[in-house]
Amino acid sequence: MRRLTLAILLLAAMEAAAQGKFFGGESPASYTGTLVSMSVLPVELLSFSALSADRAVRLMWATATEINNDYFQVEALIDGAFQSIGVVGGSGTTASPKHYSFLDTSPVQGINFYRLRQVDYDGTATLSSVVSASFLLGTSQLYPNPTVGPLFINADLTNENVSIHDLSGRLLKRLEVHREMDISQLHPGMYLLRIRFKDEELLFKVNKE
Fold it and tell me: How far apart are CA 22 and CA 52, in angstroms?
């Protein structure tokens, strides 16, 4: 079970902060714990987030610059320890913003915790801060999917933030919150429906015919 008590989370955060094992946060450092200057960090992380999706959790992150970035190892908290669940290739050396994503198809019920391990070509690694996503399988369903326009969701939504995005995450339209929504004006293709709650988000993949 990927469950983390508040005490364990605080201890993990304190240990990582003490060792300086974060990139894109307030304590940038090499993986070995040796502090390095912000100007020589291999990766400048702009954002890192986790969103509950239909039977999965989607991780998304973006970088501003990269130096000798070989790959990102995606890690999830499993049985009290972070373990690798996948690898995403890096962009080497670049001064252009880059966007990445990874789909965890085996999340557990409740809160899932994730972090990134960024690895250079020489094997040097740095860790990101920890993000989380709530996964509640079966509590919300979206139908029909595929659809020619109308969408229904079996959840009580009031004053929530509902929006349609393309698969890269770009916002296309904000929807009025009802059990029935209409996307008939969109071109056929795959889209993401994002529902933001107070402290969590749900992400559904929608096939518009």
Answer: 24
